Q: What sequence folds into this?
């Protein structure tokens, strides 16, 4: 045993040296160099330091290739050759994925014989898989000799995707996070993620190697301290710490609005939470590790805590302005059986509580900003005044337990008129410069390079660059605005005023590009389709996309298709893509910016970008003007919008911010470089899209036109899945056009759904339904819970203090949701549950105040007179009635005057809507069953739930809907 332990320790030291040797491919140890490609790397300083120390090196062309990955087969060869092991192909026989004639078989077998590897399973070695982030962390923890320590500590669940970490790596990853060796990456939902299955890049290995060689004792000592604390738990009484003011260099003023309680103090009735574990571990070295990271996996990590909502002037926001008193409503969803004490606190970057901002309430009072009492959504209203630019960290607590992820609220200065004018001047001057130089040199690439050099000399420009060889020009202004000039090859879909011929690419594989495609049989979650052409009048491909629109419009399936053209495809349209099951983009695009730009925005405003590197962008049809720049000020300063050749461009962070909960959407992005990297694809997929199509480079018009027609013919007319449609398009038109390859990422799904979409509302939204007015999805309403699951819909005559007044009419007083769907062959029954609730007092029953609920089924198919509707109170009486022949039929109805039997004391419920009085009555949950066998396999039907005011809007009425199911 002693020999084995000694051999194990030596092996770890040797393997550590070998791993470092993968960073030294060609150059001499100790050679100091400024690599040409590390300026944008988050590990630039670590790479340079290790190079100067002779620990690592780069390639002969003076590059380091920071984002390059290593395959397991490559690593096997390096280890075998360095240790002088004898190749042994026979020992690799158990691995079915190691072919007998593969170049690496002998190396894999040698590792097996030496006991260094057991493969990824008993029958697989996964030779072509990249070394993953979790594998890299496990190696370093073992190199620290902390493997056993890790196994003795509980797994830290502050990483929201810890469940995705392999069991053999979970303890080591948890310890590395606890002791600060690795940092979590904040996701769009505010939670910290690790992304264990992503590839480990050379820059990541360099950063961890630097920490290992320079701060090893710090991490070892911290780990020992954690183990000691865990061992001593329960031996001494714990003391809950109170709020400890943390000195900062920022001025923050918080006050409650008039009529509201103040934020309180540490000695207030609302207890201050204890100091939580850090949300972002403080780095050991003086320079913090930048936030930009490799792309997020296609499958989103589970959310461990809901996001904190920050509402200003009725709109969710993530920023306020310097020296402006801003009334903010904070909202946090808290799933608790009883009312709890809740608050929002300001915390520092390590997660330590600084001060209380405001208490949160679920009481339905306007003074607290709470719209609906006892619905589990807690609210608080405060006035914030910040004195300097930057950001503040906010977190909601239920009692002393965090109930939300940390929310970064940016604090920004308004753009001045001079700054707004300067953006246009720089853009015009840049375009003129590149045109002038191109005419002078006859060499567009040289002209672009010299234009970038000129931009770097301008006082207003912080950073500038090119989008790779032949790419567009981009820049970051000192006012925080991202700008650029599109310069794409001729006959492609890039936007350019100076054109060049597209050179043929020999680097493309003959195969089309598919990434992480899961074979499934699911379908889109909304029948709404948007075919979008921001440059309809000028882009020749628009006629083909017209044909795509008509294919959807003329389909027998009930698609709800929209053709969005020119200026209608403006910025605000792209904030609502989560309504659509299919999004088809016919526009210009390119990649812009680098890690330096992203890091500058992160450092200044706390902005987190999910992909480190060039950002895929596509253009809207809206031109930037002095007036609308003020409207989009926050999005411009937070890097969600850029101004490219005079038009607003959509960035991946824009999609992340405004388009959460996409309904398994199919996204076809027909712009240039739409799949150049994963930045845009991941923004869509991590927000719920199922399939993302795009192009890896500047795509030729003719190729895109052919691919678009082929894909949507396959999806609509031939009922193929997205993967099969992809294969069909490639088979018909080739994998690439000589410059750009057609690419797909995500899951393989269908475009046509049979049956009800999201009938149980268990995704926490009413996605898949169309509607208007006051429609919400809630987890409870006072004592009332969903009949099944965790969520139910509520449709009302306008609950709460918020309204939707337009021209003197409150559109929330007339609300509905509806869905058109195909009844599949064999289906016999449509059923749903509802509960009709109203504050209308008894004395007004039988009067003109007759708020009404109605559920209807409409179809072009004749409804048989023998059809039956059966409804009953849950556990109570049953009523069956015939349905008379008609194209539309009422399948459920209640009103104040028609439901008078329920206005009795036994049906009074402890629910208090805003306004009115403090009494409410309900019908109790009813279950409706409707015979739909006559529609099965024949056509679509429309199910609508409708609630409206009659008389006045003083006393509100609502209906709860749940469990809409076809059987």
A:
């Amino acid at each position: 045993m002693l020999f084995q332990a000694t051999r194990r320790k030596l092996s770890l030291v040797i393997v550590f040296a070998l791993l470092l040797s993968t960073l030294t491919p060609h150059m001499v140890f100790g050679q100091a160099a400024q690599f040409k490609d590390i300026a944008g790397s988050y590990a630039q300083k670590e790479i340079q330091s290790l190079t100067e120390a002779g620990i690592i090196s780069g390639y002969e062309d003076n590059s380091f290739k920071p984002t390059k990955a290593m395959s397991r087969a490559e690593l096997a060869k390096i280890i075998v050759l360095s240790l002088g092991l004898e190749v042994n192909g026979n020992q690799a026989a158990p691995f079915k994925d190691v072919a007998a004639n593969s170049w690496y078989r002998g190396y894999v077998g040698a590792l097996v014989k030496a006991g260094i590897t057991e493969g990824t399973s008993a029958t697989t070695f996964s030779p072509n898989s990249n070394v993953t982030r979790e594998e890299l962390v496990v190696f370093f923890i073992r190199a620290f000799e902390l493997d056993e320590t890790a196994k003795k500590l509980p797994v830290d669940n502050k990483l929201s995707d810890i469940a995705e970490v392999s069991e053999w790596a979970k303890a080591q990853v948890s310890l590395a996070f606890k002791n600060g060796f690795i940092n979590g990456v904040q996701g769009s939902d505010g939670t910290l993620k690790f992304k264990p299955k992503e590839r480990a890049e050379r820059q990541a290995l360099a950063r961890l190697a630097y920490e290992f060689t320079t701060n090893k004792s710090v991490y070892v000592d911290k780990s020992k301290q954690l183990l000691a604390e865990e061992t001593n738990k329960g031996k001494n009484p714990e003391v809950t710490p109170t709020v400890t003011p943390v000195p900062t260099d920022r001025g923050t003023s918080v006050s409650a609005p008039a009529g509201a309680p103040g934020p309180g103090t540490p000695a207030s009735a609302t207890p201050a939470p204890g100091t939580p574990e850090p949300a972002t571990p403080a780095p050991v070295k003086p320079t913090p590790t930048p936030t930009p990271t490799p792309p997020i996996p296609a499958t989103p990590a589970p959310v461990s805590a809901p996001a904190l909502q920050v509402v200003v002037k009725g709109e969710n926001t993530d920023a306020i302005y310097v020296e402006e008193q801003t009334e903010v409503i904070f909202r946090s969803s808290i799933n608790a059986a009883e009312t709890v004490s809740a608050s929002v606190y300001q915390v520092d970057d390590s997660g330590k509580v600084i001060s209380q901002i405001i208490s949160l309430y679920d009481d339905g009072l306007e003074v607290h900003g709470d719209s609906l009492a006892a619905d589990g959504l807690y609210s608080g209203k405060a006035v914030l005044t910040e004195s300097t630019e930057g950001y503040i960290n906010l977190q909601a607590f239920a009692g002393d337990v965090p109930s939300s992820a940390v929310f970064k609220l940016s604090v920004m200065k308004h753009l001045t008129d001079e700054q707004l004018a300067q953006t246009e001047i720089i853009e015009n001057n840049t375009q003129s410069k590149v045109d002038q130089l191109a005419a002078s040199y006859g060499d567009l690439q040289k002209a672009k390079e010299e234009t970038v050099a000129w931009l770097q000399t301008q006082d207003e420009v912080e950073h500038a660059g090119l989008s790779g060889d032949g790419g567009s020009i981009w820049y970051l202004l000192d006012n925080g605005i991202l700008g650029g000039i599109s310069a794409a090859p001729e006959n492609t879909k890039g936007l350019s005023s100076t054109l060049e011929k597209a050179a043929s690419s020999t680097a493309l594989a003959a195969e089309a590009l598919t990434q992480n495609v899961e074979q499934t049989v699911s379908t889109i979650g909304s029948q709404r389709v948007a075919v979008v052409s921001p440059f309809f009048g000028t882009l020749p491909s628009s006629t083909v996309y017209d044909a795509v629109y008509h294919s959807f419009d003329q389909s027998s399936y009930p698609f709800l298709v929209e053709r969005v053209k020119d200026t209608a495809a403006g910025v605000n349209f792209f904030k609502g893509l989560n309504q659509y099951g299919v999004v088809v983009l016919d526009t210009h695009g390119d990649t812009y910016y680098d890690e330096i730009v992203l890091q500058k925005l992160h450092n200044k405003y706390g902005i987190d970008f999910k992909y480190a590197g060039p950002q895929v962008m596509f253009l809207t049809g809206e031109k930037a003007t002095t007036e609308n720049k003020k409207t989009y000020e926050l999005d411009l300063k937070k890097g969600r919008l850029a101004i490219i050749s005079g038009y607003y461009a959509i960035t991946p962070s824009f999609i992340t911010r405004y388009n959460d909960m996409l309904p398994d959407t199919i996204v076809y992005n027909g712009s240039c470089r739409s799949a150049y990297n994963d930045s845009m694809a991941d923004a869509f997929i991590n927000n719920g899209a199922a399939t993302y199509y795009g192009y890896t480079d500047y795509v030729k018009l003719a190729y895109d036109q052919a691919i678009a027609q082929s894909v949507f013919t396959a999806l609509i007319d031939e009922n193929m899945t997205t993967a099969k449609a992809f294969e069909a398009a490639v088979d018909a038109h080739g994998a690439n056009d000589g410059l750009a390859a057609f690419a797909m990422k995500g899951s393989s799904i269908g475009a046509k759904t049979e049956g009800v979409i999201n009938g149980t509302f268990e995704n926490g939204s009413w996605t898949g339904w169309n509607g208007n007015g006051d429609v919400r999805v809630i987890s409870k309403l006072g004592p009332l819970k969903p009949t099944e699951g965790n969520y139910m819909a509520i449709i009302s005559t306008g609950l709460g203090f918020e309204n939707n007044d337009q021209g003197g009419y409150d559109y929330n007083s007339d609300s509905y949701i509806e869905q058109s769907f195909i009844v599949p062959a064999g289906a016999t029954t449509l059923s749903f549950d509802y509960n009709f609730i109203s504050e209308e007092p008894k004395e007004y029953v039988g009067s003109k105040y007759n708020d009404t609920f109605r559920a209807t089924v409409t179809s072009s198919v004749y409804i048989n007179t023998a059809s039956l509707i059966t409804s009953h109170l849950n556990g109570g009486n049953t009523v069956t009635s015939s349905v008379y022949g008609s194209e539309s039929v009422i399948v459920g109805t209640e009103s104040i005057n028609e439901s008078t039997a329920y206005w009795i004391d036994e049906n009074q419920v402890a629910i208090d809507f805003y306004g009115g009085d403090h009494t409410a009555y309900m019908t109790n949950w009813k279950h409706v069953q409707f015979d739909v066998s006559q529609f099965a396999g024949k056509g679509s039907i429309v199910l609508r739930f409708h609630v409206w005011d009659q008389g006045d809007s003083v006393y509100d009425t609502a209906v709860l809907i749940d469990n809409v199911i076809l059987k």
Notes: The two ends are 63 Å apart (CA to CA). Residues 842 and 903 are 6 Å apart (CA to CA).
